[in-house]
Design brief:
This protein is about 5% helix and about 45% strand. It is mostly beta strands and about 230 residues long. The strands form 5 sheets. The chain has a 4-stranded antiparallel sheet, with no helix packed on it. The chain has a 4-stranded antiparallel sheet with strand order 10-11-12-13, with no helix packed on it. A hairpin with a 5-residue loop joins strand 12 and strand 13. It is elongated, with a radius of gyration of 30 Å. About 25% of the residues are buried.
C-alpha cells in the first residue's frame, strides 16, 4: 500500500500492484496534510495537518479471489464466412452417414474460468488528536509501536502513548520549528532537526535532551539515525 496526503486535505490509499486508489478520505476541507504514516504492523494510519490535528484510522486489508468476467455469454455464433463454407458442403455425406446441416448453428463454448486476487481496504476513523496549536510537520510511530510522535511549528515534539493516545512527554528545547525526527531502532531515543540550526537527541522515557548538535548555519530540516547495530 501507498498512502499520500495533499494540500487540499485529502488522504488517498493506493494499491501498488494495480496502481489504483482504494480509498480517499477528507478529514478537513482545505487544510493541507503535512505528514502521513503507517504503524509498523500497518493496522493504523495517521495523517497530520496544518492546524495541528492528527487523524487516526484503523486499517483492515482483505484478500479475495474473484472470477474474471469479459462480457461474453459463453456461446459463439459462426461468422458469414464460416456459414458459407458450411453451406457449400451441405449435401456431402460423412463417413458415419450423417449430413452436416448449415442452418444457423450455434457452438457452445465453455472456456475454463479464470480468477484473480483483489485487495479490499477497510478504514474506520479511530481518533482525532488535537496535538498542537500550529502546523504538525511530521508524525511518526516508534518501531515498538508504543509511541506516536508529532513535531510542530510550535517548537515542540510531543509523544503519545499508543493505543490510548494519552500524552507521554513534551520535548521542549528547540527555539524554532521542528521539521523532522527519527526514532532509534529500540525506540529508546529520538533525534530531531529544527529551524534553530540545531539537531538534538532525546531520551524518550525521561523526555530529556541528551545532546545538542550545533554547527549548521541554516535550518536543519531532515535527520536520519544509524546507531551502529548490525541489522543483517
Amino acid at each position: 500500500l501507498l498512502v499520500t496526503g495533499d494540500q487540499s486535505g485529502r488522504v488517498r490509499v493506493w494499491d501498488l500492484r494495480t496502481r489504483k486508489c482504494m480509498r480517499e478520505v477528507l478529514p478537513e476541507t482545505d487544510v493541507a496534510i503535512r505528514s502521513v504514516a503507517f504503524s509498523p504492523n500497518a493496522q493504523m494510519l495517521f495523517a497530520a495537518n496544518n492546524v495541528g490535528n492528527c487523524y487516526v484510522w484503523r486499517v483492515g486489508l482483505q484478500r479475495k479471489v474473484v472470477e474474471e468476467t469479459d462480457g461474453r455469454n459463453g456461446s459463439h455464433s459462426p461468422s458469414s464466412a464460416e456459414t458459407k463454407d458450411t453451406a457449400a458442403d451441405e449435401d456431402e455425406e460423412f463417413d458415419d452417414g450423417r449430413a452436416e446441416s448449415a442452418s444457423s448453428q450455434t457452438v457452445e463454448v465453455n472456456p475454463p474460468r479464470q480468477t484473480k486476487e483483489i485487495l479490499e481496504l477497510g478504514m474506520e476513523e479511530m481518533f482525532r488528536l488535537n496535538a498542537h496549536k500550529a502546523y504538525i510537520l511530521r508524525c511518526l510511530v516508534s518501531p515498538d509501536s508504543r509511541y506516536l510522535a508529532t513535531c510542530s511549528a510550535d517548537h515542540t515534539v510531543k509523544l503519545w502513548f499508543l493505543p490510548s493516545f494519552q500524552p507521554a512527554q513534551t520535548l521542549s528545547g528547540h527555539q524554532r520549528w521542528v521539521w523532522d525526527m527519527e526514532f532509534s531502532p529500540d525506540s529508546n531515543f529520538l533525534v530531531t532537526g529544527s529551524s534553530d540550526n540545531s539537531a538534538r537527541s532525546w531520551n524518550v522515557d525521561q523526555g530529556d535532551t541528551i545532546c545538542v548538535f550545533n554547527g549548521h548555519h541554516k535550518a536543519v530540516i531532515s535527520v536520519a539515525l544509524y546507531d551502529g547495530r548490525d541489522t543483517s
